[in-house]
Each structure stands twice: as structure tokens, then as C-alpha cells.
Amino acid sequence: MIKEKYRVYFNWGVTVFLIILCSILAFFFFYRFESVQRGIKVLNEILAPILSGLVIAYLLNPVMDTLIRLTYLIPGSYGPVRQKVCKGVAILASEAFLIAIIGFMVGTILPQVVDTLRSLVMNIDKYGTALEEWIEPLLDMNPAIRSTSMGVIQEMENRVRDFLQNDIMSLMSTLTSGVVEVGRFIYNFVLGFIVSIYLLASRDKLVGRMKKLLYAFVNRDAANTTLAMAQKTNAMFKGFIVGKIVDSSIIGVLCFLGMSLLKLPYALFISVIVGVTNVIPYFGPFLGAIPSALLILIDSPIQCLIFSLFILFLQQLDGNFIGPKVLGNTTGLSSLGVLFSILVGGGLFGLAGMILSVPACGVLYSLIKAITDSKLRKRGLPTNTERYVFMQGLTEDGKLRE
User: How big is the CA angle at 101 (ends 99 and 308), to the nearest 5 degrees?
Assistant: First the structure.
């Protein structure tokens, strides 16, 4: 009895301590937000190779599992030695697969970028002459516009002259900073690549140890709930990310085939851009299509119109047929929920937030829905949302009054 009494006091003390601690952390988070941001930035720079390794290992994990399952088809006994050998081969093949994809992307994009820039530089006079021939008749018919246009052109010339005279050093500084960032990214990626090999090799042991810690320090019911939630979270993230990659790959291939048949310029370069940006829900198609259309516009307005109509058709095909078939309803979020999660995630965490916020909000929505439905069932109330749209309250016996 005495032990039970002290245990209650101890639990209340721990609860009060955690509340005070969370209040202090919230105070520093909101009132020292800049310091928190700097601390997070420093911590992110330190942990960048490990985080890169975790991301690479997580993305390659389905590939490794597929390769391991293929080894089961090979005749022969599947003993411990063969199991280790097959796992090692699967890890190396997965990493080689990643290197091949990166090599293909770099080998595809860099030559296209160089050719595009060379074409723009070599034809800049032709573009300027064509623009003048197009604008000149409009200016002749509208003298007022001519005077305004000449003022705008003169202002642009002054800005270019000022830039060349005064801002060239800042441009060099920006380029130097960009080179440093690229070098840091390559450094983190190489270390992350090495870390991912160790993570994939020790994946089973790491998962076992985490489960071991969970059931050692948490009671059985809470541990079972936590484990089930973790498995559902993993399934949702894996289904969304892998599905998005497959969907975007299909869109990139279809874009290349369509542009090649329509004889549109920069087909391979633009198809890679459209495929990569398509990973971002909602806004990705626009982020890839708009600059690509502007690039084609410089070369030919008619081809730009054809490309715009084609990309509109392709995005409709993806949104109504390909995307639902590949992804399904993996997150359970409505269109409004997806849009809200992208805006918030992108505003807080940038590009990565726009991609990962959708499955993260899907997990949160699933958790809230499960808790809500459980409480409604305990009260004898229906869980169907449509039943609550036109309800006017509850009757005295606890039923819905519609």
C-alpha cells in the first residue's frame, strides 16, 4: 500500500517535471527562435553524412529486399553462409544500382545543359533580331508605347552596365560559395554512401535492438501500440516515396517519347527535369513545366505552345490514371490535406519538406482518426463522417439527432 502510494507520487512528480521541461523548451523555441535555428543548422551540418546515409539506406532497402527475394529462386540449400553471401551481393548490387542512376543522370543532364547554354549564346543575336522584328510593328502603331519601351530598354542597359561595373565581384563571391556548397554536398554524399552500406549490412540487428529497448523500458500494451504505429509509418512512407519515384520515372519516359515524336527541342534534358520535379506533389508539374516552356519559347513560340498542350495532357494522364494506379490512396489525406501539408512542409523545411510532409501528415491523420474512432465506439457513436454532416446534437440516450 505504501509502495503504491509513493509510486503515485512519483508518477505525478515525473509528469509535473516533464510539463515544466516542455514549457521551458517551448519558451526558448519561440523567444529564441534564431538561436534555435543556428543550433539546428550546426547540428545538421555535423549529422549531414549520417542523415544522408539513412536516406540512401532507406531508399535502397526495397531494392535490397527484392534482390534477396530473387536469390530464393536459385536452387540449393539456403544456409547461414549462403544467406550472408546473398545479402552482401544484394547490398553491393543495390549501391551499384544507385551509382548507375546517378551516373546516367549526370551524363544526361550535363551535356544537355552545356549544349543548351552554347545554343543560347550562339543564337542570342538571332533571338534579339527576331524580338525586334516582332516588336517593331507594334511600336510603329503605338507611339506612346514606343517612348515607354525606349525608357525601359534604356533602364535595362543602365542596370546591365552597373552590374558589369559594380556587382561582378559579388557574382564571383556567389559562384565561389556555390562551388563550396557543391563540394560539401559531394563530401556528405560520399560519406553517407559509406554509412548506408553499414546500415544495410546491420539492418536486422539494428531493428532487433530497437525493439529490444522498446519492450525493456515500456509496458507491453504501449510497446505493442508503438511497434504497430512504427510499422504503419514505415509502410506509408515507403509506399508513398517508392510510388512517387516509380510514377515520376514513368512520366519522365513518356515525356521523352512524346517530345521525340513531336520533334520538340531539348527532349532528354526537359524530360529529366519534368520527371524529377514530378516527385513533388501538386506543385512539381508546374516547377518543371514552366521553365521548360520558357526555354522552348526562346527557340520557337509555336513549339512552346505544342509543348504546353502536350505537358498539360501528360499531367492530366498522370493525375487521373497513372498516379492513382501506382500510388493509390497511400496516405488517406484529402486533396485539401495534401495541399495544406505541402505548403506548411515546404515553408518550414524547403524541398524535402514538400515531399515528406505528405506521408508525415498522413501518419498523423491516421493516428488521430484511430484515436477518434476508438473513443466514438466506446460511446456507442458511429464513426462514419457523413453521419455528422447534418447532425443537430445528441439525444438523451446518446444517439445522433439528425
Answer: 155
Do the Cβ atoms of 247 and 326 come closer than 8 Å?
yes
Cell of 222: 504501449
Give the model confidence (pLDDT) of 321-375 as tens digits: 777 676 656 666 666 677 777 777 776 666 667 777 777 787 788 888 888 888 8
Q: Buried b vs exposed e over 320-343: b needs ≥16 C-beta within 10 Å?
A: eebbeebbeebbebeeebbeebbe
What is the 8-class DSSP label of residue 386? G
Specify the range with the lowest mean pLDDT, choosing from 134-138, 296-300, 372-376: 134-138
Give the residue from 313, 213, 301, 314 showing the smallest Cα distance to 265.
Answer: 301
Residue 359 CB neighbour total at 10 angstroms: 22
For 271-328, the DSSP string reads: HHHHHHHTTSTTTHHHHHHHHHHHHHHHH-HHHHHHHHHHHHHHHHHIIIIIHHHHH-
| CA of residue 260 relative to chain centroid, distance | 28
Phi, psi dihedral angles at 401 (to 5 degrees): -105, 110
Query: How far are the Cα atoms of 254, 318, 360 from residue 321, in angstroms, in the given order?
Result: 14, 6, 24
Rg of the chain over CA atoms, in angstroms?
A: 29
- Is-above-0.85 flag for pTM? no
Residue 17, C-alpha cell as written in the block:
517535471
Residue-level pLDDT at 383? 76
Q: How far apart are CA 62 and CA 94, in angstroms?
A: 9
Q: Which three-class secondary structure state does DSSP give residue 400?
A: strand
The three-class DSSP label of residue 67 is: helix
Residue 133 cell numbers, joined: 522584328
Cα-based angle 329, 331, 334 (whole degrees, multiple of 5): 75
Any idea which of 37-41, 89-93, 126-130 has the lowest mean pLDDT? 126-130
- Whether the Cβ atoms of residue 192 and residue 50 lie closer than 8 Å to each other: yes
Assigned C-alpha cell, 385: 463522417
Instruction: Take residue 207 and report the three cell numbers written for it.
Output: 531493428
For residue 231, the tally of other CB atoms under 10 A from its CB is: 10
Going by the DSSP 8-state scheme, the letter that residue 78 receives in this structure is -
Q: Considering Cα of 308, then 314, then 318, then 320, what sign does the dihedral take? A: positive
What letter does residue 73 receive in the DSSP assignment? T
